[in-house]
Amino acid sequence: MRTTEQQIPVILADNKEAIEGKAQILRKIEYCSFCDTKLLFTHDLNLSHLQVVESSRCPGCGVTMQPKTFTLQ
Fold it and tell me: From CA 28, how far away is CA 40, in angstroms rounded?
């Protein structure tokens, strides 16, 4: 059994720059780059090919992003 001096230190993610960087990345993914409205995502399953097609659309300006295809495992 370990004593308190032998415990491995836990590093907390309190770096504000890293947290702000993650928030900026999420904002680029979830919000429209033209009008800054939250995008609506739809997912269609194609089980015969084991794929998911993700489409996104902006309700504010009507822009539709190119669909992305993901393979299921």
Answer: 14
